[in-house]
Design brief:
Elements: E1 2-4, H1 22-26, E2 32-34, H2 39-43, H3 56-71, E3 83-87, H4 89-98, E4 109-113, H5 124-138, H6 149-162, H7 180-185, E5 194-199, H8 208-217, H9 223-228, H10 235-261, E6 266-271, H11 290-294, H12 307-326, E7 344-349, E8 352-357, H13 361-372
Parallel strand pairs: 1-2, 1-3, 3-4, 4-5, 5-6, 6-7
Antiparallel strand pairs: 7-8
Length: about 375
């Protein structure tokens, strides 16, 4: 299993103790966690760079997957049975790799956790415009290769303060040729077994006030929409639900439908379980499933789990392990996970784990009709 971390393409590390793969390795799997270039170093585009630059982070991920192909047998691994999994920006990266010709033969299964599937990628022209702003921040006479790292990071920080999405994958016509939904709609992705899902709360502390303002001013909030969220109390909770559904839940459903229609085994989930110690104050839910996949406890981002929490974590991890081995998450002692071809999904809640019809279907239908076409 190859893990690609998230962090909005500008932060994060595979060395985070939350991503300790020991529990997965105890089941007999080999876990590889991958670092890749971030921020300006990972995604800078500029006419002065070879081929215009950009997408260096994806190049690093492809290089890591090639390393796995060349070397994993020495660790007892099987190069023909590689599962790539990631969350957030990591999941977006994997979906892009599923569409990218240079990565086509490098992995056989994928797990996309919290992928914002309708996020629009920057064009080469848009990315180069940011690159010019970055060059201006460094100074017009600066030799980039000789620039001190602190100056590079300062210029990067300046642009991120203006726009948090200044550095991210771009459509370069080589590694990346289209947005995710467009690529999946056209059937350009590799037809491999896929787990895809999101959390029922995808908010985080980063930039949340801006997101609330964007939702309020977007025009998407109508009386009909409010009726679909009649069970949500308070403007902040309402904004959180709409944001989660618009950016994650509906796009995840769309990608799952498209991939299932290609004939590839597809399994969709929604993670709504909250650790018992955090239920009085759940906070942001983006990335909440990670502790349950990796089983880390007592490290930043992962508190101590209760007995019930550990039971749920054991089941989630078992699904991921079974899928990595065979392409099917189902196994002895686990609630049945129905394939997504009939629009079913696995619901993981405080009350239990079970396959079922999507209780949010009407909300997601409305969001799809609003602007997801």
């Amino acid at each position: 299993m190859v893990w690609i971390h998230g962090g909005g393409f500008v932060r994060g590390t595979a060395n985070d103790p939350l991503f300790d793969g020991a529990r997965l390795a105890q089941a007999g799997l080999i876990v590889v966690t991958v670092n890749y270039r971030l921020g300006a170093l990972g995604w800078l585009a500029h006419p002065a760079l070879p081929d215009g630059g950009g997408n260096y982070g994806l190049m690093d991920q492809i290089a890591a997957l090639n390393w796995v192909q060349d070397n994993i047998a020495a660790f007892g691994g099987d190069r023909s049975n590689v599962t790539v999994f990631g969350s957030g920006a990591g999941a977006t990266s994997i979906a892009l790799l599923m569409l990218s010709a240079p990565a086509r033969d490098l992995f056989q299964k994928a797990i996309l956790q919290s992928v914002p599937g309708r996020a629009r990628l920057r064009s080469a022209e848009e990315a180069e415009a940011v690159g010019r702003q970055f060059a201006a921040a460094l100074g017009p006479t600066t030799d980039w290769r000789a620039a001190e790292l602190r100056r590079v990071l300062a210029a990067e920080r300046q642009l991120l303060e203006q726009s948090p999405r200044s550095f991210a994958p771009m459509i370069d016509g080589r590694l990346v040729t289209e947005d995710l939904v467009a690529g999946f709609t056209a059937g350009h992705q590799i037809r491999i077994p896929l787990i895809i899902g999101s959390n029922d709360d995808e908010t985080s502390s980063d930039g949340w006030s801006d997101i609330e303002k964007d939702i309020a001013s977007s025009g998407i909030v109508t009386d009909e929409m409010r009726q679909l969220y009649a069970d949500v109390v308070g403007p902040s909770d309402f904004a959180a639900r709409v944001y989660t559904d618009k950016v994650f839940s509906e796009p995840v459903r769309r990608l799952a439908r498209l991939h299932a229609s290609s004939g590839a085994p597809t399994f969709r989930y929604r993670f709504a379980y909250v650790p018992e110690a955090r239920r009085a104050n759940p906070e942001g839910g983006h990335g909440r499933e990670l502790q349950f996949v990796f089983g880390a406890e007592g490290v930043p981002g992962a508190g101590i789990l209760s007995r019930r929490d550990r039971e749920v974590a054991g089941r989630i991890r078992a699904y991921w392990i079974n899928f990595a081995r065979s392409g099917d998450p189902n196994g002895a002692g686990l609630p049945r996970w129905d394939a997504a071809g009939s629009d079913r999904l696995l619901l993981i809640t405080n009350d239990g784990i079970a396959s079922g019809d999507d209780p949010l279907a009407k909300r997601l239908d409305r969001l799809e009709n609003e602007g997801g076409k």
